[in-house]
Automatic annotation (TrEMBL):
Keywords: NADP, Oxidoreductase
Any one cellular-component term (Gene Ontology): cytosol
NADP-dependent oxidoreductase domain: residues covered: 15-313
InterPro entries: K_chnl_volt-dep_bsu_KCNAB-rel (IPR005399), NAD(P)_OxRdtase_dom_sf (IPR036812), NADP_OxRdtase_dom (IPR023210)
Family to which this protein belongs: Belongs to the shaker potassium channel beta subunit family.
A molecular function GO annotation: oxidoreductase activity
Protein name: Aryl-alcohol dehydrogenase-like predicted oxidoreductase
């Protein structure tokens, strides 16, 4: 396993990180979840990403039990705050009240005194940004988080948040966007801004919810038990399941074979070619998937291969930077 610095900080994270969105506490049984975490640890993954909202807070608890007994200083544990975790009007968003209450809930479920990275899961248009950043600063100064980051913020939002973090003298080091061969919206604005500010990307869905494994075939129903058949996972995949997208993904198979990689390894290795990406988050329902994905660490793809991938996927790849803003909520959920 290779490691990269998170932003301009001294914190090193594994190039492949393990995330438990959708899976833990919902899609797979706890024994399977624990086996996947064990597989991640066995291949050298030390970075684990979760969020309070995943599986209605159950995912944090499952991850906490899975990591119990591991040397805490040898792990990097990330979580997030924003989406609703209860029925109340203040059980959501990035208000001071919700942040300070949510961090305590997350730490309790994770079974730890601190998280290495605490992230704003989305931008909150209903709360003054200064209020949010001061609350994050208080979390850091209380020793409950070492660093702060965000998820799915635009370049302008990153710039505003970073300016306040600098004024408050707290380490704002990361952005967690969706990024894959099929979803490239961060490349034109978020990545250049992040490079300027010293912020790294921790990317989610590098395999495009499994589409880039090639297991979904045009004109055929999705395989039984796949994410596309799951009520939670399937709703995130509608745009990706068109015959045009699936047909073009099938054209990547010979390229992966020539490179000596599985399709999943090619997809994960591809996002890691971007030097602003510190880590690619992978999820799994089986330990074998973790072992397969981890082999993408350290892989270098040559320029001809990258060009061939671009030529195949260009007609179906989403690149519009406005999509980051468009797909984020404008009001608290």
């Amino acid at each position: 396993m290779e490691f990269r610095h998170l932003g301009r900080s001294g914190l090193l994270v594994s190039e492949i990180s393990y995330g438990n969105w959708i899976t833990h506490g919902s899609q797979v049984e706890e024994d399977a979840a624990l086996a996947c975490v064990r597989a991640a640890l066995d291949v050298g993954i030390t970075t684990f990403d979760t969020a309070d909202v995943y599986a209605g807070t159950k995912a944090e608890a499952v991850l906490g039990r899975a990591l119990k007994g591991e040397r805490r200083a040898g792990l990097e544990i990330f979580t997030k705050v924003y989406w609703p975790t209860g029925p109340g009007r203040n059980d959501r968003g990035l208000s001071r009240k919700h942040i300070l209450e949510s961090i305590d809930g997350s730490l309790s479920r994770l079974g730890t005194d601190y998280v290495d990275l605490y992230q704003a899961h989305r931008f909150d248009h209903s709360t003054p940004l200064e209020e949010t950043m001061v609350a994050f600063a208080d979390v850091v100064r209380a020793g409950k988080a070492h660093y702060i980051g965000v998820s799915e913020w635009t370049a302008d939002q990153l710039r505003e948040g970073h300016a306040l973090a600098t004024e408050l003298r707290i380490p704002f080091v990361s952005s967690q966007p969706q990024y894959s061969m099929l979803w490239r919206v961060i490349e034109d604005e978020v990545v250049p801004t992040s490079e300027e500010l010293g912020i790294s990307q921790i990317v989610w869905s590098p395999i495009a919810q499994g589409v880039l494994t090639g297991k979904y075939l045009p004109g055929q129903p999705p395989p039984d038990g796949s994410r596309a058949t799951d009520e939670n996972g399937g709703r995130f995949m509608q745009r990706l399941m068109s015959d045009e997208v699936l047909s073009r993904v099938q054209q990547l198979k010979p390229l992966a074979e020539q490179a000596g990689l599985t399709m999943a390894q090619l997809a994960v290795a591809w996002v890691l070619q971007n030097t602003n990406v510190a880590s690619a988050i992978v999820g799994a329902t089986r330990p074998e998937q973790v072992l397969d994905n981890a082999k993408a660490s350290g892989v270098k793809l040559d320029a001809d291969l990258l060009k061939a991938i671009d030529e195949i996927l260009e007609p179906v790849a989403e690149r519009d930077p406005a999509r980051t803003y468009e797909t984020s909520p404008k009001e608290r959920p």
